[in-house]
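Take a look at the protein record below with the fold in mind.
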Amino acid sequence: MGAWSSYAKETVLAGAASDPMMLATDLVDFLVMKGMPFREAHHAVGALCGEAEKTHSSLPKLAAKKYGPAAGKVFDVRRALNGRTAIGAPSPKNVAAQIKRWKKLLK
């Protein structure tokens, strides 16, 4: 592949991480917070993912059309990562803390 610039690597990785299908569970969470029972939300989002794949449509656009504009906004990978703050979760703050911890341990 040759030497890639850090920008090229970051662009490729960001593109892969931004696949809306990876954030389908965020849409489930959104629907649950709006009052839909989890089982129904899980089924509804699964059906929506199937529709997106079958019709080659954008999952965020389908979600916004079906559940309103706010539903389409859940497909932001940076927002999603910032919300994952439990111990061991991949929020930027948690990742930075682990990097710091491991650098100290590996010295």
